[in-house]
Specification:
single chain, about 270 residues, mainly alpha, 3 domains, about 55% helix, about 5% strand, elongated
């Protein structure tokens, strides 16, 4: 294709003179908003969101063979590598902030777990006291029934009074039984809450698993070639990295090391596990 005027002898004076940047051909008419966003800043990346309809891309044009008198000038816009590096730095910052959030939540969960354990211990002690009282009450009830039976045999004329007393004793037993049931339900509820808190603690702890290969994401190594000069800083893993001298330290390269060269001793987990 030809960008600018095609100067043949008939129109040699009509040669193109000017600047071209991010020239693309789209498969549909752009909306006013898309055009406004694209024209708002020379460094705008609006065209990246329209890749699905870009029939001819500027990135492809600048790779083609050129003819005529052309001069490349700088635009001051960040390169795709700089944009990607910024994106990765932002992502790492967000990950670090999220990790700190998880650590705070873990501390809160541990505090709640400690309080729950204390409450459970107190509930156990209360349950033992209630059980002891219930046992004493049952013994008292048995003694009362025995006494009532003796009185019933001796005092037949007081049947009405005896029956009333038996009803009261029966009601007392029902109340004691209801109290025992209620305390048992409370204990089960506290136990379920403790189990749930323990599961949250374990889940939060697992999120802190890290790989020693993550050090390659630091600015000292990331997007640089692996050289022997790096060996003092990477001495614990150099026996493996020595096989990859000259390789670019990129995300796929680091993920490869994690997948195929992750010794068990390099896994770092929370000591609380």
């Amino acid at each position: 294709m030809c960008l600018g005027n095609w100067a043949v002898r008939k129109h040699a004076q009509h040669t193109f003179g000017g600047d071209l940047f991010k020239f693309s051909i789209y498969s549909r008419v752009l909306t006013d908003t898309e055009i406004r966003n694209m024209a708002s800043d020379i460094c705008s990346n609006e065209e990246e969101s329209l890749n699905s309809i870009r029939s001819l891309r500027w990135e492809s044009i600048i790779l083609l063979e050129r003819s005529g008198s052309l001069t490349e000038t700088t635009t001051g816009c960040p390169s795709s590598e700089e944009i990607e590096a910024g994106r990765r730095a932002t992502l790492l910052r967000l990950i670090d902030e999220r990790l700190k959030t998880f650590e705070i939540r873990l501390q809160i969960t541990e505090q709640e777990l400690a309080r729950t354990k204390t409450n459970l211990e107190q509930s156990d002690a209360n349950l033992e006291n209630v059980s002891a009282k219930l046992k004493n009450s049952e013994q008292d009830l048995a003694e009362t029934k025995s006494t009532l039976k003796v009185f019933e045999e001796k005092l037949g004329s007081f049947n009405f009074s005896l029956t009333s007393t038996q009803n009261e004793v029966s009601n007392t037993q029902l109340e004691l039984t209801a109290t025992k049931t209620n305390l048992t339900q409370q204990l089960e509820s506290v136990s379920a809450s403790l189990n749930h808190t323990q599961e949250e603690l374990e889940a939060a702890t697992k999120n802190k698993v890290r790989s020693k290969w993550d050090v390659l994401f630091s600015d000292r190594f990331f997007n640089k070639k692996l050289t022997r000069e790096m060996s003092p800083e990477l001495k614990s893993t150099w026996n493996i990295l020595d096989l990859f001298l000259g390789s670019n330290i990129t995300e796929p390269f680091i993920e490869h090391l994690k997948h195929y060269h992750e010794p068990r001793e390099l896994s770092c987990t929370n000591p609380g596990n």
